[in-house]
Amino acid sequence: MILPIYLYGQAVLRKPTEEITQTPELKQFIADMYETLAQADGCGLAAPQVGKSWRLFIVNGTELAEDYPECTDFKRTFINPELLEASEETCTYSEGCLSLPGISENVVRPKTIRIRYQDENFAEHEEEFTGFCARIIQHEYDHLEAHVFTDRISPIRKTFVRNKLASIAKGKVGAKYKYKRQ
To answer: Cβ(177)–Cβ(98) under 8 Å?
Structure first.
């Protein structure tokens, strides 16, 4: 089932997330998230973006592998993730977000990260990611920490996007996917 994506201004995007445990509805919820992500043509989706304050996000960067070889077979579910390390070396890239349609800005992020998480079967993993995979993970992890990518842009750029954010929060936006506004 395709879930509505919550847009900027929805309280759930700024609410702290809670660790989750295995529940009967979780597998279906994760499947619905993957279906929603595919329909919206994104590469990552966090539970708060579909209305749940859970520490869960999914990524699927496989279609980006031609431009970013590190994304080959990069499809994972991250449950209760914990960011353990981030490199001092950074890189800058223009990011967008399904919850902030029509906005993209350059964001500086660590180039490499180490993260501990559980997969959809609650098996624990600890992995290092670099390049675009690390960027996708950090972007989605921010959602679990009640942040959106525009929180990480320069003050002058925040001034330029302020009106666009206000329009999204007021529901004056369009997207090619199912969304929920206030």
So the answer is: yes
Give the integer Cα–Cα distance in Å for 10 and 16: 13
Q: Which of 19, 66, 124, 140 is catalytic?
A: 140
Distance CA 131, CA 113 (A): 9
- Which residues have C-beta within 8 Å of that of residue 55, sequence separation ≥ 6? 17, 18, 19, 20, 47, 79, 80, 81, 144
Integer CA distances (angstroms), 103 to 149, 162, 163, 167, in order: 10, 11, 11, 11
Which residue, among 81, 90, 115, 98, has the nearest Cα to 149 in the 3D structure?
Answer: 98
Domain ranges of the chain: 5-174
The reply to whether 140 belongs to the active site is: yes
Q: Is the pTM of this model over 0.90?
A: yes
Average pLDDT, the chain: 96
Query: Domain 5-174: which topology?
Result: Peptide Deformylase (3.90.45)
Q: In this structure, what token pair is assigned to residue 117? A: 């998480």
Strands (E), the chain: 5-6, 44-46, 56-60, 75-86, 90-96, 104-110, 112-118, 124-130, 179-180
Residue 182 banded pLDDT, cuts 50, 70, 90 = low
Residues constituting the chain: 182
Please report, as a single letter, which amino acid is at residue 127.
E
- Distance, in Å, from the CA atom of 38 to the CA atom of 60, rounded to the nearest integer, reads 9
